[in-house]
Design a protein that fits this description.
about 90 residues; alpha+beta; 2 helices
Length: about 90
């Protein structure tokens, strides 16, 4: 992944919660065990239970300096907070 990238888009068969943690750890260039647990921000089981779906549900939340968007088709975007999708 390009460390200068404003956005990381992920399509993976892993659960959304695992994908978010792994993607943020990659952006932070550290181990997933070294970052704040996801459950301090959002319930990982609830997040996993919503996806995949028919595409009508999308969740966006902030997690340790990133805006995370999980789309109904399982696509996950990880952006630096303050980066507009259109930029």
């Amino acid at each position: 992944m390009d460390s200068d990238s404003d956005e990381l888009s992920v399509d993976t068969p892993a659960s959304p919660s695992v994908t978010v943690v792994m993607g943020v750890a990659e952006r932070e260039q550290t181990s997933p065990l070294e970052i704040e647990p996801l459950y301090e921000t959002i319930d990982p089981d609830a997040l996993n239970g919503l996806f995949p779906n028919d595409g009508s549900v999308r969740i966006t939340f902030e997690y340790i300096g990133y805006t995370i968007t999980v789309h109904g088709n399982g696509h996950i975007e990880i952006r630096d907070i303050g980066i507009d999708i259109g930029e």
